[in-house]
Write a structure and sequence with these properties.
By secondary structure, the protein is α/β, with parallel strands linked by helices. The chain has 3 domains: about 170 residues, NAD(P)-binding Rossmann-like Domain (Rossmann fold), CATH 3.40.50; about 80 residues, 6-phosphogluconate dehydrogenase C-terminal fold, CATH 1.10.3660; about 70 residues, VC0802-like (2-Layer Sandwich). It contains 13 helices and 11 strands. The strands form 2 sheets. A 7-stranded mixed sheet has the order 2-1-3-4-5-6-7, with helices on both faces. Strand 9 and strand 10 form a beta hairpin. Helix 6 crosses helix 10. The longest helix has 29 residues. It is globular, with a radius of gyration of 23 Å.
Amino acid sequence: MSIKQLGFIGLGLIGGSIVKTTKRIHPDIKMIALSGHESTVKQAYDQGLIENDTNACIEDFADCDYIFLCTPVQQNLEYIEKLKGVMKDSCILTDVGSVKGDIHQAIRNMGLESHFIGGHPMTGSEKTGLSNATAYLLENAYYIITPTTQTDPAVVSEFNEFIGSLGAIPLVLDYDSHDAATAAISHLPHVIAAALVNFVKDSDDPDETMKTIAAGGFKDITRIASSSPVMWEEICMTNKEKILQMLDVYEKQLSDIRSKITDADASGIRNFFQSAKDYRDSLAVAPKGPIKTVFELYCDLIDEAGGIATIATILASNNLSIKNIGIIHNREFEDGVLKIEMYDQPSYERTIVLLRKYHYTVYER
Ligand SMILES: NC(=O)C1=CN([C@@H]2O[C@H](COP(=O)(O)OP(=O)(O)OC[C@H]3O[C@@H](n4cnc5c(N)ncnc54)[C@H](O)[C@@H]3O)[C@@H](O)[C@H]2O)C=CC1
Ligand SMILES: O=C(O)C(=O)Cc1ccc(O)cc1
């Protein structure tokens, strides 16, 4: 399918980032949008991103090839019925919501299964709004895709291709596995971060000693507590069962370490931290299983003529073939960094050792 027009309902951090990325990579694709605040639509128009300068009405979405629902998850559900009578036959409705079970249920209720592919970019931040959206937010992020049983595989493949063209890594999962996995690695951590912040707030003294001395560790683990309360309210309301299951298991973990501390079980305590450290340290290593493995590293480029050529020569003279190389700017390396992709794990590891030997700063991801 050649994509001519995309529609966006919601133009915040995620919707805005997809629009900005699409504009960067596919400048000929036309985009229209409606948003909670009309001023956001005007801003996007002024930035040359979308065609409309005031909120689009639902009927305007009739010519779209894909419509992206990019509002908080419960709001997304409300647009399905409105769009049903408007979408053209070949249109695919998709969403970026953090929970997939509810929207799949709503799609089934509406009889729209052959017209829907769920989506969830595993990237973002605690910030909100179009002003924080970037044309690089999706870069190298897994983008989970949850087709229905009735989505034509060819249509899923085209959608995967489009998502891949934006620099993200499409990964197909069923919606139930998605909701279980995200409850563990995203929803529960947000609950824990907020609980920890509330705990410190309630425990602090009138001089706010805890707040004053809070160091990097506390700030690292609680950054996501600054996320949108509306968004997290809606996620907890729609993934309730799975979040509760994960909370039960997590409470058991807390109670286990509590017992070890009570019993002064030194080796038990050490094992608790060692096992967490080993697993946490392994997160940087390339993923296993069905998840696509990408052997990418990032390297600060010395600001001089021939900087890339020097690195390419070092690698070539050591028989290391580069799969892909280029300067990128993304959310993590805003000032730009050299991204080098290798073909396999051994050459990835040798490249790191070699570049460090030549005093380059190398980041493993
Ligand atoms: N924030 C993050 O890091 C991530 C968020 N998501 C999902 O993306 C979706 C959007 O989140 P963000 O972009 O972060 O939020 P945001 O707060 O930055 O943007 C939300 C957008 O939806 C609009 N909106 C809200 N209610 C609306 C309504 N009833 N009608 C029309 N527009 C409405 C707002 O005006 C705004 O443009 C959510 O479903 C969230 O679960 C997915 C991945 C990461
Ligand atoms: O800020 C972070 O690190 C996040 O975890 C962002 C995030 C929030 C919600 C999602 O569904 C996916 C990613």
